[in-house]
Amino acid sequence: MPADRSLDALWVYLATRPLLHLTLTLVVYLLADALFQRSGRRALLNPVLVSMLVLIGVLLITDTDYQTYFDGAQFIHFLLGPATVALAVPLYRQLDRIRRLWLPILIAMVIGALVSATSALVIAASLGATRETLMSLAPKSVTTPVAMGIAEQLGGLPSLTAALVVLTGVLGAVIGPALLTAVGVRDDRARGLALGVSAHGIGTARALQTSALAGAFAALAMGLMALISSVLLPAVVRWLFPV
Asked: Tell me: the pLDDT tens digits for 119-169?
């Protein structure tokens, strides 16, 4: 049997095994994280970004549809719930600091939610985006499950919103720390809050790599961003784009 056919037959066989895509995802991420650490944590080699690009390439080369991949790797998706709940641990450890700063945090969160949504909507509208696209774009900085619910309520496409949320998180995690350093933001509390507001879960994971303090404030921002956006976004959209 020719070598290329042997490889195809092997892939078809492995694709029927439920652990293939789970193992592939874990191996790719571990290799990407090792590369990230060896590079001195260069932003462009963020392990989430590298893993995503590699896995997309593998799925395209092997002609594997996303649903097949998801069915095999869905255990990781399941673990997102416990991982999110676990963010309460660093948050609880910084509770005293958060209590002392509750008013500045609340003001920053409201402003962050408004600026994030309105800037994206205005830019997209000026470039000629359809209303459906705009409604899908509005909750891009909110964690995926909540963002998809908001998009559906506004009349957007939840699937498009999910893709935009992932893209926003990856870009925020890659560009955010360097941008914050460039503008002179060095306090871990402010850096964590900014990453949580702009890049939700992926930004929070990046903040945790900086320090537990930054991670706690990022986790707080991610949660508050979901709550505040759920309340404010419908009103902002109705104001900017009345039916």
From this structure: 989 999 999 989 999 999 999 988 888 888 899 888 888 888 888 888 898
Of 78, 73, 80, give the one whose Cα is nearest residue 27. Answer: 73
Given a contact cutoff of 8 angstroms between Cβ atoms, the answer to whether 220 and 105 are in contact is: yes
pLDDT digits (tens, 9 = 90+) for 165-190: 888 988 888 899 989 999 999 999 99
List, in sequence order, the alpha helices (H) in the chain: 3-15, 20-38, 47-61, 66-86, 88-93, 95-100, 102-126, 131-137, 144-154, 158-182, 188-210, 212-240
Instruction: List the Cα angle 159/130/161 in 5-degree steps.
Output: 20
Question: How far apart are the C-alpha atoms of 181 and 234, rounded to whole Å?
Answer: 33
Contact status, residue 190 vs residue 171, Cβ threshold 8 Å: no
225/112 Cα distance (integer angstroms): 8
Domain boundaries, the chain: 3-86, 88-240
d(CA 138, CA 151): 7
85 vs 4: CA distance, rounded Å: 46
Helix axes 212-240, 188-210, angle to 10 degrees: 110
Query: CB of 236 within 8 A of CB of 243?
Result: no
Task: Report yes or no on whether pTM surpasses 0.85.
Answer: no
Radius of gyration of the chain, Cα coordinates, nearest whole angstrom:
20
Token pair 């404030």: residue: 217
The 10 Å Cβ neighbour count of residue 81 is 10
